[in-house]
Amino acid sequence: MSAHAGRRRSRLVVVSNRLPVALKRAGRSWQVEAGSGGLVSALLPVLRNRGGTWIGWAGAPGPTREFSRALAAADRQSGYRLAAVALDAREVEDFYLGFSNEVIWPLFHDLPSRCNFDPRYWATYQSVNRKYAKAVARRARPGDFVWVHDYHLMNVAAELRRLGCRSRLAFFLHIPFPSPDVFLKLPWRSRILDALLEFDLIGLQTARDRRNFLACVEALGRSARATRIGHFPIGIDYNSFLRAAATPAVEARAKELHRLLPNRKLVLGIDRLDYTKGITLRLRAFQDLLERHPAMRGRVSLIQVVVPSREEIPEYHRMKTEIEQLVGRINGAFARPGGWVPVWYEYRSLTRMDLLAYYRAADIALITPLKDGMNLVAKEYCACSIEEDCVLILSEFAGAAEQLAGGALLVNPYDVRGVAEAIRSAHRMPEAERLARMRGLRRSIRREDVYRWVDSFLRAARARSLEEFPASRPSSPAPADGLPI
Ligand code: GDG
Fold it and tell me: Is pLDDT above 50 for 96?
């Protein structure tokens, strides 16, 4: 494609709270390392083909001038433009830690009692969203397609329209959308809902989120006629996980784990430190299993990895202490000197290689969030389970449960005894059943990968009429549900 043709095409402008890069100080200058997550790899080909820009905060408070040179160098490498939005320390405090993570995050995960509805947070949320909108308006041309991501930026379309922007605007929410019972507690519920309805397309993770959203539209007496609302369950880069997990280095590391923890089944939990992930209830379930079923002692170990996150918030710090006390109590009660330890606990961020090795080594994945938009760990675990001889235990409140219900053992994370029994069932499951379930899971995760997700979202955004609306393969629930209402 010639550069000229490229200029005439509709470009993609991706907007997210953070830029998909890691910034590191190198003396007085900055070094930019390209991000490597599934979203980045899926959007990269689109950004390269159509040309485009990714707009977001660089991740450190301060003026963008400092890293503009580093970003420009990264542009040349990545094949698309990176544009940094500057946030000062107070904005980070009130917009990011405050409104995004003390209001929207707990509320949308059905935990209103954890919310801090501070009006100051809302004021900063609005002004920071305006800042992002201005950054978009400076770069987007009328024919461009602007794709805004996640709960930090729900006001961006409304701000852009106010600035006279005529580009097509779409939004994808990575976290759940709550039912009216919960959403209506938000003091700024109408303002947020009206702002969301300024987007041309809204993508949610699951059919339940979509139903909740529509119920809130109705409860607040609004109309969603001008907006398409669909559910587009996000996938992973399946093949890249599969390839990486199959390397000899990962295999050797997985074998080493079994050597270190021999003659038992390994149960794996990997979570960011967050109260939505259900880590303490999961530990209680494991404790309940060992208490009530002495035969399980010595035959199973839980590897629980907690990845440091939002440590600056006191609540998260308290949670970490509680987790560590519980681990101590379980190990204190059941460990055998010089032998079996029930819980192998790690508080650190794993290298990708270790993450893959843990996935490969685990006989059972225990993923029990109280609520989760999707949960990619569940999908990555299945993709890396090359031998297919393992079991996924999954919370029914993870978005992934809609897609994976057929193969996973679904549990209610609040039901400690039920989770304990699910571990026991997974432990006793006959090999043929394990293989059949995992094969089915992997097939579905491979088919609905992140490339397909980007594709179905972009096709939904392109469709101008009902007839044009993407008629993709029937296995995908998203497009059929994305019809304009
Ligand atoms: C939000 C929604 C939704 C984890 N530990 C390590 C590590 N990870 C990687 C995993 C996975 C990612 O982090 C976590 O993704 P999740 O989906 O589980 O959760 P959130 O971060 O809360 O993401 C969620 C998602 O958006 C996408 O829409 O599914 O519901 O909350 O990719 O592999 N990576 C490395 N070391 C670790 O220790 N390298």
Answer: yes
